[in-house]
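Example for tutorial group B:
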């Protein structure tokens, strides 16, 4: 009977040793998988996404354009050129998305294949301008003067041409899908189907 306390103490220690060994042999916890929402947020912070948020071009590019009137293939996205005199300017294949060209003088300007999506051209002078195959999706051309402008193959999807002057303009092959044409004039203009409006 004198050995019973030692036996009790031995059995009391054994469960603790067994528990410690079980914990040391347990597999390390696995990291929880990323949810689709997390991956989507990571994708939004890539350099490409940051670049698309650029608000305006460097002032040096705008200055060069205003001084030389030559800036083909320039990136002018978001520039403020309201009221600028760009008569005869070469802006062919330039990125002019979202540019403010309200009341600007673009007569005889070369805007062939330029990207003018969502640009503001309200009241702009585009007489004799070359806009062949230009992208004018959702552009505001209300009250713009497009007399004799070349718009062959231009895309004017959802553009606003309210009260615009398109007399004698060439619109052959142009895309006028969902374009607002309220009050616009087309006297002597070549229409998208090739017919001449009288």
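The residue assignment follows.
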């Amino acid at each position: 009977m004198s050995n019973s306390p030692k036996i009790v103490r031995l059995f009391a220690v054994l469960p603790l040793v067994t528990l410690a060994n079980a914990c040391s042999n347990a597999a390390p916890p696995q990291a929880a998988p990323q949810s689709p929402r997390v991956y989507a947020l990571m994708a939004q912070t890539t350099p490409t996404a940051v670049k698309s948020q650029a608000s305006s071009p460097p002032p040096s590019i705008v200055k060069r354009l205003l001084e030389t009137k030559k800036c083909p293939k320039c990136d002018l996205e978001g520039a403020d050129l309201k009221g600028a005199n760009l008569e005869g300017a070469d802006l062919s294949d330039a990125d002019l998305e979202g540019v403010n060209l309200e009341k600007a003088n673009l007569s005889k300007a070369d805007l062939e294949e330029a990207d003018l999506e969502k640009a503001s051209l309200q009241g702009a002078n585009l007489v004799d301008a070359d806009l062949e195959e230009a992208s004018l999706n959702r552009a505001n051309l209300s009250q713009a003067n497009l007399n004799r402008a070349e718009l062959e193959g231009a895309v004017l999807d959802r553009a606003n041409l309210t009260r615009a002057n398109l007399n004698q303009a060439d619109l052959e092959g142009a895309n006028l899908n969902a374009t607002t044409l309220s009050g616009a004039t087309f006297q002597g203009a070549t229409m998208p189907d090739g017919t001449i409006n009288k």
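Residues 4-24 form the longest helix (21 residues). Compare this with the pattern of hydrophobic and polar residues in the output above.
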